[in-house]
Amino acid sequence: MSIKKQAMKKMALKGFVDMLPLNLAVIPWGILCGSLAIQRDFSVLEALLMPLLVFAGAAQLVATELIASNASMATILFTVFIISSRHFLYGLALRDKLKTLPLTKRLGIAFVLTDELFALSMHKKSLRGKLRVVYGLAAGISFYLGWLLWNVIGIIAGSYLPDLTSLGLDFAIAATFIALVIPTITTIPILVTVVVAAILSVVFKLWHWQLDLVAAAIIAMVCGYLSLQLQTKFKTIDKRQGSVS
Amino acid sequence: MILLTILLMTGITFTTRYLFLHPNLPIKLSPQMSSLLNFSAPAVLTAIWVPIIFVQDNKLITNLSDPYLVAATIAILVSIKTKSVYWTVGLSVLTFTVVRYVI
Predict the structure, then answer these.
(1) Are residues A177 and A197 located together in one domain of the fold?
(2) What is the pLDDT of residue A241?
(3) Which A residues in the span 176-195 are in contact with B, Cβ-Cβ below 8 Å?
(4) Of A222-226, A238-242, B13-17, where does mean pLDDT reach its minimum?
């Protein structure tokens, strides 16, 4: 095997393994999604197609409930669209890195572009160059397979499971995001972004806004950006004053 | 009918993920826009985890010994100290379980 191929394999394995803690954190949610579909009278095929094709967390869960309650197709699709709209931000943020990739890799990364993969690709260098793309792709596939597996367990266990939503199992998801976000707060603008996003996401959630997450995120991004502008402005003023005195 | 709904939903989730990765889209990101988008990860991810901790049953938590709050505090401290996903998730989930089910 050539050195290049070996390096690729190593990166793929590393991506796959690095995603494992995030895979573990969504075990309860995956099982819940699978079992809920069965409890809401989905056929096994339909329940399987949800993680296989739709491959989403919140959107899958909400859609399952909506379908079960005979909501109109328009309502279901609109709700899924709103919940998924945060992905537009991911696509935009990664656009310049990924738009030049060959079609299959681009489609592949897009298909597995979840919150978790985006979280894992926060670093400036992430997904730059062939090896890092392979790493990201492997991490995304790792999460896809994990999610599928947890769903299947939920489908098999089906109605034997108690209502998992009341057990507080969602804490593990919060914990992984804390683990990924907090260490990246290295500058004041990022701190501003995080604080604004934290406050607004809670306020909007309490107001029952459908676009709570996206609205909070966009306003927080603007605040982070503006504080960066302010910071650079003050730095240049400081420098000028420094050179005068 | 459910099958058709699932297929259409697949179209939506995939489109939201793929759209802006499409090279022929007539948009070019200005340096300002790129700089703004650099803040998207901390912004979105924070907006996902903070409500999980602070909003329960559509209400803001007020109890300082709430297991979510205590365990999230531990998670933040451990993540600053270790920068490790494993340690952060492991210790904070353990804290959560102890506070919620043992104490």
Answers:
(1) no
(2) 76
(3) 176-185, 189-190, 193-194
(4) A238-242
From the list B17, B79, B92, the residue facing A111 with the nearest CB is B17
**Å from B71 to nearest chain A CA?**
8
Domain count, chain A: 2
Tell me how many residue pairs between chain A and chain B have CB atoms under 8 A apart.
255
Residues B61/A87/B6/A212 CA torsion (nearest 10 deg):
30
B5 reaches A (C-beta below 8 A): yes
B60: helix, strand or coil: strand
Co-location of A166 and A228 in the same domain = no
Nearest to B23 among A56, A100, A218 (CB): A100
Instruction: Please give the average per-residue pLDDT across A107-131, as a whole number.
Output: 92
Three-state helix/strand/coil letters over A34-70? HHHHHHCCCCHHHHHHHHHHHCCCHHHHHHHHHHHCC
CA B50: distance to chain centroid? 8
Give residue A150's Cα distance to chain centre: 17
What residues contact B76, with CB distance under 8 A and at least 6 apart?
A: A178, A182
Cβ-Cβ contacts under 8 Å for A6 (sequence gap 6 or more): none
Q: What pLDDT, on a 0 to 100 scale, did the predictor assign at position A237?
A: 82
ipTM of the complex: 0.91
Binary contact (B44, A118; C-beta < 8 A): yes
Give per-residue pLDDT as tens, A182-206.
999 999 999 999 999 999 999 999 9
Residue A43 tokens, joined:
């056929």
Q: Are residues A46 and A80 in the same domain?
A: yes
Domain range holding A48? 3-182
Look at phi and psi of residue B49 and say left if phi exceeds 0, alpha if psi is from -120 to 50, else beta.
alpha
Q: What is the extent of the structural domain holding B84?
A: 42-103
Q: How far is B31 from chain A (nearest CA, A)?
A: 11
Q: Is residue B91 part of a domain?
A: yes
CB-CB contact of A150 with A34 (8 Å): yes
Same domain, A14 and A53: yes
Q: A74: nearest CA in chain B?
A: B5
